[in-house]
Amino acid sequence: MSYNRAAARFGPMLLTGGSRSFARTPYALPRNVSAVAILLPRRGLATETTTSSGHDANHPPPGFNVNEAKKPLSKNEQKPTESKTSQEAAKLDDVAIPKNEATSHPKTKAAEAQSLSELAKEKAAEGKKESKEVAKKEDDKKLTLWQKVKKEVVHYWDGTKLLATEARISSKLALKMAAGYELTRREHRQLQRTVQDLGRLVPFSVFVIVPFAELLLPVALRLFPNLLPSTYEGQKSKDAKATSLRSTRKEVSNFLRETLGETGLPVTAATAQKEEFAEFFRKLRSTGETPTDEDVIKVCKQFKDDLTLDNLSRPQLVGICRYMNLHAVGPDPLLRYHIRYRMRQIKRDDRAISYEGVDSLSIPELQTACASRGLRTYGMSPGRLRDDLQMWLDLRLKYGVPSTLLVLSNAFAYTSGKETELHTQVDALRSVLSSIPEELFHEIELEVHNAEGAATNKQRLEVLKEQQELIEEENEQSQSDTHAAKALPKDDQDIDDKNEKEELPKTDAERELKEAEEESKKV
After folding, report:
1. Which of 68, 253, 307, 351 is the most exposed place for a label (fewest CB within 10 A)?
2. What is the count of structural domains for the chain?
């Protein structure tokens, strides 16, 4: 019992330790605790906020007054800390971090936080798109067979009502045109679209009249996608056509870059004899200088549409037809007829848009007008489309650049996508003109010498052989496809723009001279 009493008396003094431990009031332990309990840690029983050991990092050091630390600082003590933080912020603001260039300054925390937030926004947007696509796929999967049939029936019923409404509106437009009133561009396109849709109903009605012929309707629509009227066309088919047209135009753009570099554009003796023509190609080829925009436009005026189309090779004609979303099947005269017919439509549409203004077009009409001219429409804003269309109209109507060269320049610039300003479009025209090879100048030499009376028989013989080879190729092509040659349309209309001064002679002497020239041509 005496050992237990001694342990109870001196135990608290040994546990606390240090010089200050004797001034404290020891914790009264119960008298029945054994001496072995002195060796156990008494941390769970301690009521002090500090310890004298100082080795535990979770507690304040000895001598630290908690009550004084809780008091707020005075204003004088806060000023030096605020000045330090303001200086650090000014240093961070002075550091300019370029976005697209390498920099020697390290990125600040603010810039890193901003970039991370932007990345987070982009990922969130991508996640929303993916979730929408997944939701659409799930909705399509959830639809039963009866629901899909019902959905298609509703779609065709709405298309029928839309076609009936368009027919009723177009009948009024036809009466207006028959009465002698002039239709606007929008009214003319409405009437033309309705007439085409009604014409497509004739072969489509066969599947309705003939019993069980509707079973072959999906096969017919697969083979002939334009069999149905435009009011029955769904959004998926429109997107598929637009995607295929974009891929086709990219292929044709690369193809025309290669083929025009090999064959080039046709050049006549009249254009080759002009000083600006020779000076332009001297700068472009010999000296390596870049011709001005005015020189490019002057030279482009010499390449007429009919002259260019008549001298293009078959691969180039097929490429232009594919680029303009035309049928690329048939002999060369049929392809030229399709291109000329589309060019005439575009020229009439250019005058109508120029008269009414580009701003009068709605966004769907603007996209259709740009797509018909071979301009890029996918991913372009309405403002960019209006600028591109206005640039086309300026080059066509104001500067007199032929439509064929503009289409070729759009094909050249389609893959690069640089059509925002006038000089880039002129750069595309310059690249088209620079693709004329050196061999064409040797062929032009004979025509120049004939005009001067200095042509030799050797030159005439070489050109005659070349022309005979071209004639034989055309004859072989016509013999291989005799039925198509018989059904060729009459392509005798000129699509070149002519001045009224040239068409209408002023004096009687000029009229007589013109009549004499026409009679001599007939003889």
Report:
1. 68
2. 3
Chain-centroid distance of CA 337 in Å reads 29
Residue 110's pLDDT band (boundaries 50, 70, 90)? very low
Strand boundaries in 365-472, DSSP class E = none
Contact 328, 315 (CB under 8 A): no
Contact 405, 260 (CB under 8 A): no
pLDDT reading at 88 higher than 60? no
What φ, ψ does residue 358 adopt, rounded to 5°? -70, -30
Q: Check whether residue 245 and residue 212 sit in a common domain.
A: no
Given 214, 232, 250, which residue is the final one in a domain? 232
The answer to whether residue 294 scores a pLDDT higher than 70 is yes
Q: Which pLDDT does position 178 carry in this prediction?
A: 87
Cα atoms found within 13 Å of the Cα of residue 31, Cβ hemisphere only = 3
Does a structural domain hold residue 520? no
pLDDT over 50 at 439, yes or no: no
To which residue do tokens 């009459």 refer?
Answer: 490
62/80 Cα distance (integer angstroms) = 28
194 and 326 in a single domain? The answer is no
478 domain residue, yes or no:
no
What is the DSSP code (8-state) at residue 284?
I
Using CA atoms, how far apart are residues 260 and 437, in angstroms rounded to an integer? Answer: 9
- Span 394-404, pLDDT tens digits: 888 888 888 88
